[in-house]
Amino acid sequence: MRSPATGSRHLSNHRKFDGGKLVVASHNPGKVREIGELLAAFDVEPVSAGELGLPEPVEDGDTFIANAEIKALAAATGANRIALSDDSGFALDALDGAPGIFSARWAGPTKDFSFAMQKVEDELQKRGAMTPERRKAQFICALSLAWPDGHVESFEGRVSGTAVWPPRGDKGFGYDPIFMPDGYQVTFAEMEPEEKHAMSHRADAFRQLINACFNGE
């Protein structure tokens, strides 16, 4: 059963997670680690889909939430446990929202984000997007919490900023080295994890998830 309140901050009618093991439907170690840190204060025993040997499903949705739900439901049914999936990406105004839901694919089969970041910069230069005003960017995160019976709760968070070049910092993953959030002079990859977790797109989505499904009334 799909929750009718996808992306909502409203706290009623949400199914609650009651603690214990939670499958993190990802094979990305950086993402699994970050999700584990964001849930550290709760009664959660995270285990990744990779550790369980679960296959990665085909992500053929046309939105972040659609792809997050595909992954969460596949992991929940495959492991017969509640599963949490994150589908996130980097979206640039000058590239009409690209790479967007294809952010991981821009890194190629080897998940080489140095290549992906260079591709972003090349595309921005092709369009003459060289000033901060032309390099506006967002990180977007969709979270889906799915149960083996098919119920799913989904939420979406965002953070706005600017694409910078060259890449800076080594604390993050993915496109973090080229994203400088609004109001800051450092990239996500230059921030300490605690600082990033407090204001990132993933943190925004997690606040909604936690309020609705962990400690909501």
From TrEMBL:
A GO CC annotation given for this chain: cytosol
One matching Pfam family: Ham1p_like
CDD domains given in the database record: HAM1
Cofactor: Mg(2+)
Keyword Metal-binding: yes
Positions bound to Mg(2+): 87
Enzyme's top EC category: hydrolase
Enzyme Commission number, as recorded: 3.6.1.66
Catalytic residues identified in the record: 87
Subunit and partners: Homodimer.
PANTHER family linked: INOSINE TRIPHOSPHATE PYROPHOSPHATASE, INOSINE TRIPHOSPHATE PYROPHOSPHATASE/HAM1 PROTEIN
Protein name: dITP/XTP pyrophosphatase
Organism: Sneathiella litorea
